[in-house]
TrEMBL record:
Keyword Cell cycle: no
Segments passing through the bilayer: none
Protein family per UniProt: Belongs to the DegT/DnrJ/EryC1 family.
Protein keywords: Pyridoxal phosphate
Annotated GO MF terms: pyridoxal phosphate binding; transaminase activity
Protein name: dTDP-4-amino-4,6-dideoxygalactose transaminase
Sites bearing N6-(pyridoxal phosphate)lysine, chain numbering: K198
Residues forming the catalytic site: K198
Source organism phylogeny: Bacteria, Bacillati, Bacillota, Bacilli, Bacillales
Species, as recorded: Planifilum fulgidum
C-alpha cells in the first residue's frame, strides 16, 4: 500500500477546519455572581455561596465534609497540614505531575520522595512506593494524572500496612472512578482544583474532602485553610496552636462554582467518550501505545497522552509529534520538561533562597535514573488536548492523523 504523503513533506493536511470551541460561562454564573454581590459580603463564613458550593459537591461525591480553598495547590498544602506532615517528614509522590503537588510538602519543610510509575497509566506503582518507605515516611501523596485513576487498591494496601496517611491529588481528575468509587474518596483527603485550565473553573480555587467523616478531622482541615483560626460559630478562636496559611475561598468563586458544578458531569462524560474513542481508533497501530485505564477504572481525560515505541518506527518521538502538528493536530511531545527531581530545586537541593533547609535534614536521592519508567514516559509520550467542546469529527481527525503518521513511519 502506498502511504499518503505527510503534510510536513507537502502532502494534504488531515485537519482543514478549526477545532470546536464553546463558552464555559454564561447566564447561570452571572446570576450566581450577582446574588453573591447582593449579599453585601464576599466572605465565605458570612455568605451562602461557598457553603452551597460545598454542599452540592458533598452530595455529588458522597462525603460528609469538605473545605473550600483558594487553589489546588492550597488544597494539597491544607491536606498535608491536617495530616500532621511536619518538619523532616517524608512524603512519597509522583515525579510526573504539576508543581502544585510539591509546593505544600516543601512549605511544611517536609521532604518529597519520588516513586516510580506504571508505564501505561502514568500513575504511582504501589510496589515502588513500598520500596521508598523509611521510618520517616508520613504520607503518600498520590496523583491521578490526566483524569485516569491510580491503582488505589494497591496504594491503600501499602498505606494500611505501614500506617501512612494518603492524600489524593485529583486536580486533573474530576469524577474519575476506580471500581465505581470516586477518586478523592479513597484516602484520608482528596484535593481538587478549579483553576482555569481544569474541567471546571472558578478562576482559581480548590476543595479538600475529609474522608473520615469525623468532625474533629474536618475542623483541623477547615482551620488549616484559615490561619488556624477556629471559625465554627459566631465566636472565633484566634489563638492558633501552630502556623497555618490563609487559603480561603471567596463568595465570588463559590458562586461561579455552583453554576460550574452543574456542568461537570456533561463535561467529564464528553471527555471520557472522546478519550476512549481515540484509544479505540489507534490501538491496532504498530509503534503506538495508547494510555491504559486500570481495570474497573473510568477516566475523565484532562488530556490524552500516548507513547510511541521508537524501535518500531523509523522516526523519533519528536518527529512524530512534529508530523502530527503538520497535519493540523496540536500535539506536544511529553508533558512537563523533565521528571520533577531533575528540576534545579532538587538538583541543587535548595527550596528557599540562601538556605539548604529542609533538604539538609535528609539524604533522599534525586539522581537521574531514580524513576526509570517515569523518565521513559516523558521521553516517549505525545500529548493531545481534549475538550468537551471538540466535535466527534475533531476526534476522528486526530485519529486519522495519528494513523497516517504511524503508518508512514512504520518499520518493515
Ligand atoms: C493543576 C494542578 C495542581 C495545582 O492546582 P492549582 O489550582 O493550579 O494550584 C496540582 N496538582 C495537579 C496534578 C494539577 O494538575
Amino acid at each position: 500500500m502506498r502511504e499518503e504523503e505527510l503534510a510536513i513533506h507537502g502532502g494534504p493536511r488531515v485537519k482543514t477546519d478549526a477545532f470546536g470551541t464553546g463558552k464555559r460561562f454564561g447566564a447561570e454564573e452571572a446570576k450566581e455572581l450577582l446574588e453573591a454581590l447582593e449579599q453585601n459580603t464576599l466572605f465565605y463564613h458570612s455568605g451562602t455561596k461557598v457553603k452551597t458550593f460545598l454542599r452540592r459537591f458533598n452530595e455529588l461525591y458522597g462525603v460528609r465534609y469538605s473545605v473550600a480553598v483558594s487553589s489546588g495547590t492550597a488544597a494539597i498544602h491544607v491536606a498535608l497540614g491536617a495530616a500532621g506532615v511536619t518538619v523532616g517528614d517524608e512524603v512519597i509522590t509522583s515525579p510526573i505531575t504539576d508543581q502544585g503537588t510539591l509546593i505544600g510538602i516543601l512549605y511544611q519543610n517536609a521532604i518529597p520522595v519520588f516513586a516510580d510509575l506504571d508505564p501505561r497509566t502514568y500513575n504511582l506503582d504501589p510496589a515502588s512506593v513500598e520500596e521508598r518507605i523509611t521510618p520517616r515516611t508520613k504520607a503518600i501523596l498520590v496523583v491521578h494524572l490526566a483524569g485516569t485513576p491510580a491503582d488505589m487498591d494497591g496504594i491503600m494496601e501499602v498505606a494500611r500496612k505501614h500506617r501512612l496517611k494518603v492524600i489524593e491529588d485529583c486536580a486533573q481528575s474530576w469524577l474519575t472512578r476506580h471500581r465505581g468509587k470516586l477518586a478523592g474518596t479513597f484516602g484520608d483527603y482528596g484535593c481538587f482544583s478549579t483553576n482555569d485550565f481544569k474541567h471546571i473553573s472558578t478562576g482559581d480555587g480548590g476543595i479538600v474532602t475529609v474522608n473520615s467523616g469525623d468532625e474533629e478531622d474536618f475542623q483541623r482541615v477547615h482551620a488549616f485553610a484559615d490561619k488556624n483560626y477556629r471559625r465554627f460559630s459566631d465566636e472565633v478562636m484566634r489563638d492558633p496552636e501552630c502556623l497555618a496559611p490563609n487559603y480561603r475561598m471567596t463568595e465570588l468563586q463559590g458562586a461561579v462554582g455552583i453554576a460550574q458544578l452543574k456542568k461537570l458531569s456533561w463535561i467529564c462524560g464528553r471527555r471520557h467518550a472522546y478519550g476512549e474513542r481515540i484509544t479505540e481508533g489507534i490501538r491496532d497501530l504498530p509503534g503506538v501505545l495508547p494510555p491504559k485505564v486500570p481495570e474497573g477504572g473510568w477516566s475523565s481525560y484532562w488530556f490524552y497522552m500516548f507513547r510511541v515505541d521508537e524501535s518500531r518506527l523509523s522516526c523519533t518521538r519528536d518527529q512524530f509529534a512534529l508530523a502530527l502538528r503538520g497535519e493540523g493536530i496540536p500535539a506536544s511531545p511529553g508533558y512537563i520538561p523533565h521528571v520533577l527531581y531533575r528540576q534545579k530545586m532538587f538538583r541543587e537541593r535548595r527550596a528557599y533562597p540562601g538556605s539548604d533547609f529542609p533538604f539538609s535534614l535528609s539524604d533522599v536521592s534525586y539522581e537521574p535514573g531514580l524513576c526509570p519508567v517515569a523518565e521513559r514516559i516523558l521521553a516517549t509520550s505525545i500529548r493531545l488536548p481534549v475538550s468537551e467542546f471538540f466535535t466527534e469529527k475533531d476526534i476522528d481527525d486526530m485519529i486519522r492523523a495519528i494513523r497516517k503518521v504511524a503508518r508512514y513511519y512504520a518499520k518493515g
